[in-house]
Amino acid sequence: MKDEIRDSIIKVSGEIFSRFGFNKTTMDDIARGMRKGKSSIYYYFRNKEEIFQEVVEKEVSMLRSRILTEVEKQDNPKDKIRAYVKVRMDGFANLLNLYSLLKTEYLAHYDFVEEIRKNYDKAEISIIKEILDEGVQKTIFTLDDPYLTAVTLVTAMKGFEIPLYIKPSEENHLEMRLDNLLNTFFFGIIKR
Length: 192
Hints:
This protein is mainly α. About 80% of the residues lie in helices and about 0% in strands. The chain contains 9 helices and no strands.
């Protein structure tokens, strides 16, 4: 029962945070959303920051699970990279609290934010490096440094996050840009 209530608080809080943002959301808002007294919320969580951390960690877990499921469906490393990039970018469109955490500077002074950012980046780089290593092993990719290549690809994907949220109506253009990024990544720009 205690876990169910805690999960319910996380779910409702996630909806409230995504609607109003971290700074404008109060414990009173969360309590109202739960139809409980504020003291009931404090029984499960010390503060708003702790709730937000749980919300974001749940979103990270959901996104990672979706990504890994799609990647595992693919047979070759090139298709795995393509699946990774597309599911990741689509996931960001649906996980607003995670995106808010990763892009917003006003949250940077919270220690947990930097920890989540670092862990998320490490996990992303690790997954991509594993795919790249597989591609090198199968002689599909020729790379001098798979780790550095993974860091580069993660950095490039981060550049696509802002346009995703500025003009969400241009979803097809984003798809075209992602395809262009992947084609450039796979085939380069130098004529062979």
